Fold each of these.
Amino acid sequence: MKRIDKVYQKLNEIWYTSDETRLIQEKGSSASELAELLALSRANVSSELNKLVRDEMVVKIKGYPVRYISVEALEEILHIQWPASRNEIENVDEFIVDNQLKFNHKKNRNPFDLLIGHKASLKKAVSQAKAAVHYPPNGLHMLLLGPTGSGKTFFANKIYQYGIYEQLFDVKAPFISFNCADYYNNPQLLMSQLFGYVKGAFTGADEDHPGLVEQANHGVLLLDEVHRLTPEGQEMLFYFIDNGHFNRMGENGFQREAEVLIVCATTEDPNSNLLGTFQRRIPMTIEIPALIHRSIEERVDLIKFLFENEAKRVKKTFYIDIDVISALVQGVNYGNVGQLKSQIQLVCAQAFLKQLHQGNEIKITLQSLPEEVRNQWHSSSQNIKKSEEISSYVDVTTVIYPNKLQESLEEENSGLNIYEVIEDKVNILEKEGISKKDIHQYIMTDLHLYVRNFVNKSTIDYNLLKFVEPKISELTLRLKNIAEAEMGVTFDNRFLYYIGMHLDAYFHRETKDKLLSPFDIIEIKKENANEYQVACLFKTEIESSLEISFPEIEVIYLTMLLVSIETLDEKKKVSVLVVAHGNSTATSMVQVAKDLLGDVPMTALNMPLEVQPEELFAKLVETIKEMNQGRGVLMLVDMGSLATFEEKLIKATKVPIKTIPNVTTSMVLDVARKTNYMDLDLNGIYHSVTKDFLSAMQLQGLTGGRDKAILAVCTTGQGTAKKLEEMITKVVDSQTDETVRVVTVSSLKMKEDIPDLLEKYQVIASVGTKNPKIDVPYISLENLVDGSGERALRQLLGQYDSNKEVITKDNVIIRDLVQDTLNMYLVYLNPHHITDLLMEWIDDLQIKLGRSFPNSLSLKLVVHTAFAFERVLKQSSLDYDEPLREELVDLLALVGETIAPVEEKLDLNISQDEKTFIAEVLLAD
């Protein structure tokens, strides 16, 4: 830990838990007192204290000797928001009796300044968010990208708080959050939720109901999991985003208005999951980094922050060993902040329980961690080195005080407080005269049951299993094998979770309670005979493995748990039929899916090569009728010819059927996951899978095993050929994930080289200075530069709709040409930065004018305008000497309006004459 941090922590430790009386008497700590406590020189401590005063973290109290106290401690003692400007005061007494100042709550701090990483990993995200919120007139809509649990919802809330802080929103402005996954496949219901409905709009609409857009008026609407919106759902938002008008469902002749800042959040690639037209209406994309991509320092700060939240909830001071923080940072590669938070909550709950009657302090050591984390930490040869790295940011023991005046995670105040639950139970049990030892055992069970009550099959926290003793974990695996063999089903990890947690809770109770009546037991045995027999086998295995006597009442509990686990899967699902040639191909793929994902409604049908089509068809009809659960059947087949059976099978079986060819094991796994956990209907699964797999499979099948290639034909030297290759490669990379090679060919050697290339590659186009006259499209270099050739090339590569508006921020060719030009001639401005800004400006101009510019015009505009900004720095701006023509007036106003954000970002203002020249360029085209 740095010396300045040690000084600050010691000062905070001395004063944080003090009161006004002590503050009046002692008036803080002197540099000498702190130096003695820290075994440092007075001069060094004094130097660090003055730095902390300048950083507004410590207040200097003038006098002899000069004394110091942390702002954090002052705020806690006096229950106020300390004014940032008061980093030096004459006398603490005058402050305490100054009631007017004491209750003068200054404007809160910038919410983004409270974010861990706002100056590092989140710096760009914060900067983008601030710019978007301030963008006139009502802010830019935003798209947050990041993995699950990375903090997208938390960041969206900070955007909302920042708008209030900057007085862009009213303090009572709404923040509405909506999860698009809830209405994934019901556009009508989605529309009614977003825009509301009037009485009589549909059956059950008994009264008028405002939608979320209306509720979010003058505030923020967060659309979480926006990738789950269907194309129809995305289109519903177009009209509102474009002009702010909407109607409730069933409403005619009345147009409503709302002013809403829309923040979307997704874990998926927007280019694959969102319409291009929708993305263009959400112009600001902000990436939230995964936990693993954040620095060690930030992860340490996050861990301290999460411990601070728990200290605040439990109202006790935490003393945390450095090895605990090091193990949490390094020991387990947590996927996201949410998982880290869950782990820390459980560690704190364990430590809280073990030290329940030990005053107002809780010590958190390596023993408080799950066994898996401890073992990994102890077995690592790098743990000492890692601790040394962590020691740059924390001391040997980190002290965390409760009730700190700081931001907490937005969901902290929702739901039950686990510590309050534990303390309430302790109070009740103590009043009933139960011993402390027995109370501890009861509460340990409650700790498990508390968490279990707050999970469901899609959000189970498997980190809890790390707290289960290894012998119980191993036993639970054996019980799973017994249950699967006896019941003829495949259980997934939910079995390990529910059975494992129950057994672990049982073995931590000395007194085994009997909570069911004899009548209940008889009924359970009678109604669940099969599950009871399996539970009896469990009893035999448990007694044999652990050498204990396992009571009958626990057999009944296990019976009830088996019934509960089965019930989780009772909901009918889309059935999946995997059909493949060979004696075991289909069976192998289905077995992999069931091994990895548990029991899924998936059937394998192997087709020996000698089977006749009529026999196969009859078998398909029989199998489909048997397996259908009422929601249709998705057929995954290995040959496209089998897809021709679909229509005949629908007629023969009267079952809805969809067919996907070119089945692979990865496709089967994807279908199994979507069937089991995403609750999609037949069409939903079909469209999701075909989007992810089919196009790539079909394209690959047509190539005969050869890579696709584009020929780059050039007459001039190597430099030009290399540049042409780079330009084509960038278009390819931005358009498709498929492997498409760019092969340069000299026009002088075309006759010799091209036959070999046609044999080696599947050539899909040629681009360059000379047409090789082969049987593929040719794009001239001139067409590539003016834009038409780039559009043609994108169309050849797929996923290009020529009917859609051609306004894109990813015009690769023009961006390259612009940057090459500016790299050569700009002296003061950064060519990369100015290119990005002016390409965005070009997009804005095209949207405002409602047309797409040819590349030649874009090139002229960007280069001319970049030079105009450069001339501002050189103080050599051009003068426009001609009278202003009437046809330039509107264009000049538009240029001024659209270029203003660029001027603001560069802190440079180009003259009205320069803007007139830009308007001339626009008019001349």
Amino acid sequence: MRAVLALALVCALLPAWAQEPARLVSFDARGAVTLAAHGKAAPLYLDGADHAGVLRAARDLREDVRRVTGLAPALRTEDAPAGRDVVIVGTLGHSALVDSLVAAGKLDVSAIRGKWEGWQAQTLTRPLPGVERALVIAGSDKRGTIYGIYELSRQIGVSPWHWWADVPATRHAALSVSAARPVTDAPVVRYRGIFLNDEAPALTGWAKEKFGGYNHRFYEKVFELLLRLRGNYLWPAMWDAAFFADDPLNGKLADEYGIVMGTSHHEPMMRAHKEWQRGGQGPWDYSRNGGVLREFWRGGLRATREYEKVITLGMRGDGDEPMSRQANVALLEKIVADQRAIIGQELGENVPQAWALYKEVQEYYEQGMRVPEDVLLLWCDDNWGNLRRLPTPEERGRAGGAGIYYHFDYVGGPRSYKWLNVTPLPKVWEQMHLAWRYDATRMWIVNVGDLKPMEVPMEFFLDYAWNPARWPADRLQDWLRGWATREFGAAHAADIADIVAKYAKYNGRRRPEMLEPGTYSMVHYDEWERVVAQFRAIAARAERVAGDLPRQRRAAFYQLVLHPVLASANVNELHATAARNALYAKQGRAGTNALAARARALFAQDAALTRRYHALNGGKWNRMMAQTHLGYTYWNQPPVNVMPPVSEVQPKAGADLGIAVEGSERAWPDSEPLALPALDLHERRARHLDIFNRGTRPFGFTLRAVEPWLVADVTSGTVRATQRIEVDARWDEVPAGTTQGTLIVSALGRDVSIRVPVHKPAGPAPGSGFVETHGVVAMEAPHYARALAPAGRQWLQVPDHGRTLAGMTTLPADASALAPTDGMRLEYDVHTYTTGAATIDVTLAPTLDFQPGRGLRYAVAIDDEAPQIVELHADKSLAAWERRVADGAATFSTRHRLARPGAHVLKFWALDAGVVLHRIVLDLGGQRPSYLGPPESPRIP
């Protein structure tokens, strides 16, 4: 708790630059400058000689004011400002209006002058002859001015997603602004961008239908969105497209808008690989075809000579594959040297260049390959959101700096994931926080797939890149609430934020494409039932909110919230239904066939949800949700969605009794004797059994408890398919030391006994802490008893991080390694009844060893035993990595021994920065197979 309070204090004392820009706008006419009221709108004044992108953004502002008020302000680029209220917009050095205010001492721009993309807004009184009041938006450069313009659009209530998600602006009769002192802002990460990738069939089919392909009409929509989101960099769609070659206006308009263009990690020298596939001569092999490739690359530079860009260097194999085994470091160094020479000859020396250390290219770097100091090193994640490498202290001094290429979408092993948002914001925060603290801040670019399903994480990624200090871990839900308020209003914002956070969290623990009927356990810990119940709960909440929203906001809500929630819930329930169908078939239940029918209905519902999306707003988004997501048999997507297999049975003629108990796949009469999982005094949780029919005719039953304190919620009835019965105890009546009770089911002339283990130990009650039940003690990471940290260090809770509750990690994120004796540990008080062999299973985030040398480490111990140190990355096999990314977690086990029952202290040390603890299970022999592990054990305050 002390660590959490310390963090809150740190956040409260953040410097001014780390806070959000001040609120400028009020929805009345009482501010310092009235933008719109009483049928009039303040005119917008710009210098006609300012950047074309600034003038274009000002036209957007004019339209945004009209969206909100119904009044479109005049936009003037030749006249001198005049009037009671005006808006003056301009770029330093490119706007005579703004420069004159600076020269006259009316406007102090020292806070932004010389900054990259800085902007300033301020209200002035009588700044010019004939002007009573003015709002001045000034930019240090072209994009700085543009971002200042769009900040005003945001604050008057226009969503960046007004076109891309059909978010309407809330209407207001009046708008005014107040900023007596300058409001300024500027980004931390220089290049902040997205990659439209893996874009077929969904985005490609949609773009062809609506625009005729990836032409300038399509990209104008992307450029505007990117700027409204404060991005500035783009890797364009490239599976079957060539940005500069397909439409000459693509590059011209990108530069006019203010978008810095690049080409992807495997497309060097501003040439799309599709251009080579269309007309390249000879092999894509530098050792055999270097002369042709050099001329090909020269063409890319000549075609983009006038445009702002970051040039990708290096070379991978044909089609984003590794280069041949014969490729070596010396050849790659020659390729980069030759590319640099071409850049110098064609463009001069001062052109930003980046080398993407993607997949095997990082290995070349680790083997000693180097590029000149001014080249940006673009480090990459593992395609699953885990950073592979971050700059060392020595590398942080490089002139070219470092950046990150991240993924919200991926095509490749162990399985492609492209359908919906599966990356929770806490995961993004935790990894990109590392990038920030390790000074990888020259470029952040994220693969957003088809763009549309990734609206929320994409916006957060770009917001966080603008200024990471604004969004500490404990404000992630504040960010979502702010997003929901802007899009849908304050009334439901908290609910919507929680729904969006939960669906991403639930998808993140197992991506929909990787789901199978066997993913979660159908028999242990009610795991599938709990997963389906969680999804159903948020789906029901989302449906209620949708019904309460004004009609004009429902299309946006379906795209941004309701569809991903309903679609995710439906797919999970489909797999759960298939799993239950398989279990019922194995047990011979007559209800098997109804589950098969239910699975078919859910499969049909999946298609119906897609059709509903495609029909929105007269078919505006037709094809956008065409991505297949059911029926994977290997890493790549299936050609069509395929329903999970289901079984049907032929029930026996007449009535036939069957009984199944929680925790077992087998059923009576094939399994005898029957025993429920134990009822436990500390847990006080009911257990269940199913009386089911294996025949065609209903039958009656009775159930009685031998012990008077043993109770069932149903004691008689008629079974047509299945009757579930909850069994519990009246604990005040259970004698201390009791170990079991008995139930008897009578039906069809048979009496079947069911043993009910009971745990109500005699003796004194345990003290505070977690208590063993069913042979395990399961603990969520934030529920520690004590958090200890040496001076200068602290524990940080990352809310909602991981598959269950939250994560615990350490600060500073770039701190040096520790030993157990340094005392950076969490302590958990536990009470056990079992002695002997024990296993501690520790579940962590699948963080990679992002610094050279030894992998990350933790240590664990019980009581005063010597800590056991575990290296997270000792197993570097492909199988180990695939298991961790598929599971969204890494679990490690250590062996221990408890000499006595009673109170113990379990200790967990984080020895390296970057370790994120999710949960701990002390297994005393009772843990059963499951995906998420046993639910958290009872905890005595």
Amino acid sequence: MRGAEGKPAFLVGIDLGTTNTVVAYAKANDAQAEINLFAIEQLVAPGEVGARPLLPSLRYHPAAGELAAGDLQLPWPQQDLEHAVLGTLARQLGAQVPGRLVSSAKSWLSHANVDRQAPILPWGADADVAKVSPVAASASYLAYVRAAWNHRFPHAPLEEQELVLTIPASFDEGARALTLEAARMAGLPTLRLVEEPQAAFYDFLQRRRATLRDDLADTRRILVCDVGGGTTDFSLIDVAFDDDGEPQLTRSSVGNHLILGGDNMDLALAHLVETRMAAGNEGGMKLSAARLSQLMERCRAAKELLLSHDAPESATVTLLGAGSRLIGGSRSADVTREEVAAMVVDGFFPKVELGDTAKKGRAGIVEFGLPYAQDAAITRHLASFLQQHQGALPDTLLLNGGVFRADALARRLAETLAHWRGAPLTILHNDNPDVAVARGAVAYALARRGQAPRIGGGSPRSYFLVLGETGKDHRAVCILPRGSASGEEIRLTERLFALRLGRPVRFHLATSLFEAGTPPQLGEIVDLDAGEYLRLPPLASVLQAESGDKRDITVQLATVMTEVGTLEVHCVAEADAGQRWLLEFQLRAGKEEQGDGEAQAVSPRIKEAIEKIERIFGGKAQKVDTKEVRQLRQHLERGLGGRESWDTPLLRQLFDALMLRARGRRRSAEHERVWLNLTGYCLRPGYGDTLDPWRIEQLWALFDTGVQHHKDNQVCAEWWTLWRRVAGGLSTEQQLRLLDDFAFNLQADAAQRGSRPVTLVNGSDVDMLRLGASLERIPGAYKAEVGAWLIKRLEKAGREAADTNTLWALARVGARQPFHGSAHEVVDSATVAEWLHVLLALDWKKTEPAAFAATHLARMTGDRSRDIGDELRATILARLKAVGAPPLWQAMVSEVTQLDEANTKRMLGEALPPGLKLIG
């Protein structure tokens, strides 16, 4: 049902929270309508449905036969064929059975180092547990809300109402785009986004609209501190008064993204309880990732009980046993009210000075695969935020988030801010932090209609186009200044771009994390090294003309902060503004691309180098003897310097020149060897430049044709070396295709080899060994099979004859921290532990590569689902010390650290191009 003239009947706000999903609504055509909470019907026990204002943002994936069909019956038809349980019952079941609960999906949406659209949750679950992607999990909560709403309001479907969905203020463009994708998957394609701290403040404005002038009479700057289950957000809202004395509100600053919230507090308490449960238990009791997640749910309940009003002196946390030992194998530990208060208050809200800054570093806590903030002190993060956003300290405070139901936390934060400014703050009352954001989303919709006060401020950040001028790739030009109004398109007319239709185009953007003073203006150049900036996922598109021509065209960039709340960038033809192409963020998992290869400086002698390539592989037949072909690399090095010094922009120009002349490789076996060798070298490691995905696409088109000179062993070897070198740029599907050939070359019998297709290139065991180890995107189970083959090779060779190549490959296949793959596809830790026992049987003093392999198999990540057990870790560390292994190797096993250049080179099999750094 829609209202008059097709208008929506309701304004609906949805808070898709890390912990709970909440829905509020108001009648759209009644200016005096009250905002109500939508009670969401959900399973509260097997076969029992109840309506609750909070839908826990949880999915439980039951085992086959675990629940009867009648146990999961809802009032509406279910479309989830996997019969996942959502909401209150999911929380209950997840607390009883480990490894089957999907939680914190919202936090995963902002975790760029995994494929957020791949089925990776529950993180660390057994292979027989159904998996879902963070995007799909988020979509399932929204789809559930839609089904519940449409059951209650069949004549006013949710998808036809005016919808507002809330997100953390600190979500970057990638996370915002994925949130919108989740909404589209749930059948809610049309909605607006509003930031959660703003929504919380809109709720205050709506509740206090009759007395707002008096409430804010002495207020000039408001801090909204929103600490939810998974994230912490800070926002500053400035208050001024117009000539009539009415408050004018402007959101002036937004904090950085922090994966820090109630989940971290539950985790800290779980670590305490785990230690107590292990006391007196022989050998300790370190829980698996699944069991720790189960314990966290129990600790969350204990925390909320002990921090509530009239809390008891203590609470008992019980972790049930597994399987047949469900009761007899249970363990319990007591925690007191004082302990929880001290841990949460002093651990997460310690007393700090305004000059203190939050600790930074890449070696933060990594539990369940999530990179939690390294510094757990929210008050230190707040101090850093206020230092960055200069001006008067806030005189008024609005707290939001379930953690502030604990009075001790609210008091500590208020006391800390009062200490910093030397005077007490005004505290704005939030009557229900659990639902304020959803109600505020509705108030925002009312404000957009002119029926409630509205917060101004426009874009919370400035956005910049990263430039590629010679020697100045750290510079960027402002394309959308902070404060730009929503819906207002801004054209960067000072810069023109010559682009070719039908070919991909990519731009790199950055956004400011904070700006002191006046924000940069449109077209202003900034130094990315001089402040704190965040590089966004690249923007990309293929500019297709209606006629399909391939001509060059001159374009400008047009940028707008949409009414939906996302950044949108178009290429607009200079000659015809009606021709425009939308650029989309590339959100698939991948390491950070370094540099704008097409625009960076390259050697002035590149022209001579391309002429040499043309002479060997060009279309015009030239008399070139075999020696000249063989020496092409040496000739290139004479003009360009040693190839180890060739940086990424130069390498990619050479690759492009070779790719344009790919047909010339067929002239002779020598031509093909040289072409394959140079082409792979110039595109390694398969990513790192803006156009590398396009280059991989062009190169992959050659795969099915194989090599021309298939009887030449060196040609075959160079073929596999090429694909190993560029493996980091290949998709999962492409790597699986390589795995098929890997398996054939290793396993085919004589009869099968006799019928081998000519296009399936032969490969030696060593070729296959090095290739298989480089396929990081294949599923972990396949890697385990490759590793099993390598272990057999080691056992067959014997203690004294372990092969260096085999040990290197085992290090890559079983690595705890992949270079280009997603962390969810590593080999399971139990299998790796078995491999380590095989390595321990070798003499590490005589076979140093065994120590190298063991180091990478035992490398600490901080993620329990990937890390080996403590006892085995101690054994590996003791052996490394006994053989005098390098200090970095020992550190890699004992703490979370990064590889140095030498170990990166050894692990990859060769050096990376200068200037390209892998974060891994």
